[in-house]
Queue: 2 jobs
Job 1
Amino acid sequence: MIFLMTVLAACTNSDANNNSEGDSGENESSANAEEETTKLINNIELSLTQAHIGETVEFTADQLEPNEDYQIMWNEYDGHFELEGLYTFVGPQYTDRDIVLVEGTSNDDGVWEGSFEVPDGFGGNHNVVVAQGDTKIGQTGFFVIPTFSMEPESGPVGTEIKIKAKGLGYDTYKSMWQLTYDNKYTGAITGMSTNGTTVAKIRATGHVGDHHISVRSGYLGSPYINFGDSPHARWPAPDFTFTVTDEEPIVEDFVEEAPEGADGGVEMPALENKDGVEVVLEKEEGIVGEENSITASGLPENEEVEIIWNTMVGSRVSGNGFDEDSDQLATVTTDADGNLTYDFEIPDDLGGIPHRMDVVVGDEVYAQAYLRILPSIVSIEPKSGPVGTPIKITIKGGGWTEFDNAYYMTYDNAYMGYMCSFNSQGTLEFTTYATGEPGHHLMDLYPGLYMQKEKNPLDMTLIPQLTYSVDHPGSGMPAVRMSFEVTE
C-alpha cells in the first residue's frame, strides 16, 4: 500500500549527536531533505474539504511571492494488476504521481485565488499542493467521496442491473466493495485497474415487488455492517431498491461476450514465423466444436506439413504439477506454390489464455498462430421441475491459469461456491438443486481469482468478481447466464 505522511519535525539535536562522523555526509543530506519537507506550510484554504469527482472547489493560497506563477498540484494514483509469466496472479499494485490541476499568478499581496475540478481517479485521501516549478510550498488534505448509481430501477426477472461507481479507494479496506441482494452475499465490486471507476453487473431475481441491494466496503468477501462505528465512517454505504415487475422473464441461457482483460490482458509470447511465411486463422477465438480454418503461404512446395496443437495438462492440487503438452491435429501437403488450407473443429480443450498452433515442416517450425477457446454451455438438464430437482450442467472452455481456472456460482444472486476446470481439461460438469418458490430462478457463473501470490494486504480470491467486464486480470473471462423454472 501507499501511505501519505506529513513530516512534522526534523530530527532533534540529540539524535544528530548520536550519529557517527562517518555518516555525516549521508545524515546532512537527509537533514537537508527533511528540512525542505518541513518547509511545507498550511497556506491553502479550500471551499470544500471533501467532494465528489467533477465538483468545483475554490481555493485561496497566501504567503506567496507577489506576481509569481504557481500551480495547484494533486497526487494521483494509478492501479494495475501484476502478473508473473502467463498464469500467476501476483495482486493489485499502485503507484502515485503529482499532476497539475490549475496554473495561475499571485497578486501584489502574494495571494492566489482560483478553482479546480476534482479529477477522475481513486477516491479517498489526497494532497492538494501549491507549487512553483519543482518546489512544493504548501499543502492541505482533501477527501474524494465515491459515488454509486444503479440502472435500471425496475424490470422483469432476468433484467441486467448495473451498479456504477466512481472514486473507489486505493487502500485495503476501500478498494474492494461487497454487494448483497436481499441480504444474500452476491460478490465483489472493484475498480483497481480502472483507477476507481467501475461497473458491476448482476441480474434481477425473486418475487414481483421490491428487492434490496446493498453495497458495503469490506475485507475478504465480507461486507462491513456496522460501518458507522468504524474509523472510515465518512465513506458512503449505498442502498438501492430494484422493483421486479410481472413482465415476461428474461431467462435465455447464454454466455456473455468475452471482455478484454484488465490492462490489455496477459501478454502472450511473440509468435515466430520464418521470413516470407504467413499464417491466418479464420477465427482467432471460438467455442469447442466450432468450425475453423487455418491457411498458410510461403511454405516449401509439395511438402508434408504438421499442424500442432499446444496445451497445458496437469493439476495444481494433485501434487503432480502441470506442464505443456502437444498433439498433432493433422498432416497436410502444400501445393505447388507452398500454400495450404486446413479445416478443423476447435478442439475440446482448455479455455482462458490462447493456445499456440505450430506449422511444422520436418523438424522446423515455419509459422505459429494463437487460438483462444471461449466458454460455452453444452447442456442444462432438466430446465424445469419441483423443488429438489437435480440440475445437471455441463460447460466447456474453462481456463487453467490462476485468473481463469475457476468460476464462482450464484443462485438467485446468492453465492454458492466455486468450480475448477484445469484437472478436467476445460470441462465443468456439476449438479445443483432447484430451490425457491414456483417460477424462474437464475444461476450465474462469474469470473474470479483462484490464487494470488501476494495476499497481504488484500486477498481477492475465491469470490465472484461482479466487475469482471472491466476489471478482471489476465484473459478476460465472460459471465455465464442460466435459469431454471421451479414448478408447483
Note: Residues 188 and 319 are 31 Å apart (CA to CA).
Job 2
Amino acid sequence: MLILFYLFPIVEVFRYSLTDIRLDKEIYSYGISAYQYVLSNPNFWEMLKITIIFVFASMFLQLFFGLIIATLIDEGERRNLKGTLVVRLIVLMAWVIPGVIIGVIWNLFLSEANYGILNYFIQLLFNTKISFLSSQDLALYSVIIANVWRGTAFSMIILYGGLKQISEELYEAASIDGASTLDKFFKITIPQLKPVIFINMVLITIYTFNTFDMIMALTGGGPGRSTEVISLNIYNTVFGHLELGRGSVLAVILFFINLSITLFYYNFVISEE
C-alpha cells in the first residue's frame, strides 16, 4: 500500500507527459508532441545549462564552506573553546528559514532600489550601484550565493556528524608522530570523511535540482530567463501557461536526472564496500 502511495503520482506524471493536456481544457490526446516541443525548444537547453551551473556551483561551495565550518567547530570543541554551540545555532538559522523568506531577505540585501542594503553602502563609498539582480551577467551568481548561504548549514550538519565519528586516537597518534594540523586534516580527516562527503554531495545535488522557491522570490527567473532553472520552469509551465503535459515532460526529465545521481551514488557505495 505504501509503495502504491508513492508510485501512483509518479506514474501519473509519466502518463501526463505523453499527452497534450492543459489545465484549462478537459479534452486531451495521447502522443509525444509534448516531448518534441520541449526537446526541440532552444530555451530548454539554455535552461538546462543554467540549472547545471547553479546546481554544481552551489554543491561545491556548500561542501567547501560546510566542511570549513564543521572542522572549525569540531576543532574548537576538541580544545574546549567556548562559543561553538552559538556558532552552530547561528549557521543553522539559515537552514530553518523558508526558501521564499530567504529570497526576500537577499532581495532586500542585493537590490538596486533604495532599500537595497549592500548597494546603499557601495553608493556611499563609490558613488555607483552594482546590478546584482537586474544584470544577466550577475543575477545567476547572486542566486548561487544566496543558495550557498542557505545550504551551507545542511552540509555543516552532515559533515559535523561525520567528524564526530572519527576516532580521537588517530589524531593523538598523528600528533605523537609530529604531524601538523594540515597533515592531520588531509591524511586523517578527509580520508575518514570520504563516504560522508559523497553522501553530502548527492543530497545537496538532488535538493538543489529541486530548488525553486528561493529563486522565485529573489529574481523570479529573470532578468529575462537568466536564472530560470528547470524546477522553476516546471512551475511556470504548469501554473503560468497551464501546460500540464509539457510541465510533466520537464518533471520526467528532472526525475531521471535525480534517479541517475542516486544510482551513481549507489554504485559508488557498492564499489567502496
Note: Residues 20 and 245 are 5 Å apart (CA to CA).
